[in-house]
Amino acid sequence: MTSRTPADVPAADDRPLGSARTDAERAVESVLTGIEQWRGRTLHYAPVTGGLQNSNWRITVSGNDRRYFLKIPGAGSEAFVDRGLAHEVALRAGALDIGPEVVLFDPVSGVEVVEFLEGYRACTNGDLKRDDIPRAIVAMHRTLHGSGLLGVRKTMLDMVDEHCVQAAGLGLRLPADWPVIRGEYEAAKAALLASGLDLVPCHNDPMPGNFLYREGHPMRLVDFEFASDNDRAYELAILITEMFYDEQRTLEMVEEYYGHTDFATVSRIRVCGALADVKWGLWGCINSRLNSSWDFDYHKYGAWKLMRARTVMSDPRWGLWLATL
């Protein structure tokens, strides 16, 4: 990839190693000084916005023909992330040409360095309302799904069950209607298990910033911290849920991925979408206790997700969707 200036020339807002002013900058400098292959080089860094758990930085290294993206795991993220698995999936995505090349990974700290994709930008919610970008995302997912199982099964059911245990262990106060949501979740879990799960390697995290776009170039998929072998319907369902797609767009997305639409498939997408809200609702509530380093209202996020799950579970079609699985 090319840029307007040489890749080893820092931008005006980059900071040189040794000039840290904040705790975050001191943390990134501590990481940079420990990277053996960059010892003796002139290093500059600048923050990359986005993400809810990790600290992200663009790194410029003197004498190198490209820049780098550095990710430092956030406090408490080890409760949710299998760093070794995330690294394995990142390597696979790079080999499949749907993700950036992985340059360095520290299995102890979870610090990861990948190529900085020049000219690319993180997608926005507005981008995912277009016709072309959601279709390109589905194509990337289809490529990943067809690459063979990872050997680490963590379905949406496993995720919710894990979060239930974590929430109980922390003594979290969940919304008053949580017992109702939990009961409907158990009914959905039983129906999905009875139907049989269609396991494929999934990304599991459709935050718009995880999809990178550059006009005239293939899209790229990043951030594999929640990847696992999961039901393929969940991957599409969580994208549809996160983007508030209406009935018509939902049917179009199902057609794009599966090549057909039928009531049973759409029912599975609807049920998995509700479970996605349960999973991320609990995740938010748990993070409100574990992560205080980010200016983000995790509890409000989590409570809202659980409220939306309850709304879907109150739909008159909910029982029919479960019976159709």
Name the average pLDDT: 92
Describe the strand arrangement of the main beta sheet, using strand numbers: 1-2-3-4-6-5
Run of helices and strands: EHEEEHEEEHHHEEEEHHHHH
At the fold tier of CATH, the topology name of the largest domain is Aminoglycoside 3'-phosphotransferase, Chain: A, domain 2
Give an overview in words.
Residues 45-259 form the Aminoglycoside phosphotransferase domain. Residues 1-23 are annotated as: Disordered. InterPro entries: Aminoglycoside_PTrfase, Kinase-like_dom_sf. GO terms for molecular function: kinase activity. This protein has 325 residues and is an alpha+beta fold. The termini are far apart. It folds into two domains: 15-119, Phosphorylase Kinase, domain 1 (2-Layer Sandwich); 122-324, Aminoglycoside 3'-phosphotransferase, Chain: A, domain 2, CATH 3.90.1200.10. It has helices at residues 23-33, 83-95, 132-145, 156-170, 178-195, 232-242, 247-258, 263-290, 298-313, 318-324; strands at residues 15-16, 43-47, 55-61, 68-72, 102-105, 112-115, 121-122, 199-202, 211-213, 220-221, 228-231. It has a six-stranded antiparallel sheet with strand order 1-2-3-4-6-5, sandwiched between helices. It is globular. β9 (211-213) and β10 form a beta hairpin. α5 (178-195) packs across α8 (263-290).
